[in-house]
Known about the structure:
Layout: E1 17-19, H1 29-33, E2 36-39, E3 45-47, H2 55-82
Antiparallel strand pairs: 1-2, 2-3
The structure holds zinc ion.
Amino acid sequence: MQQTPYVPCPQCGSTDIKKVGFTWWGGALGPSILKHVKCNACGKSYNGITGKDNTTGMIIYLVVSIIVGCLLAGVCILIFELTGGYQF
Ligand SMILES: [Zn+2]
């Protein structure tokens, strides 16, 4: 039996766990930070280290990335305004 570094599924107890590489909410980075894994037996996804649901972490990640995105967009708009915009 293949050993995984992750805790067994909190929902069905299966050890057939795979790492989630990409999610709609976190892209490729989010699930990596949150140790997001998915149970192959029942489809439950959770934190592979703590065995807890990742919903809270997911929301925090989403909120933080939205804030960072807004800040970056704001900075870009500011630079654009300061430089008077690009004239073609
Ligand atoms: Zn399961």
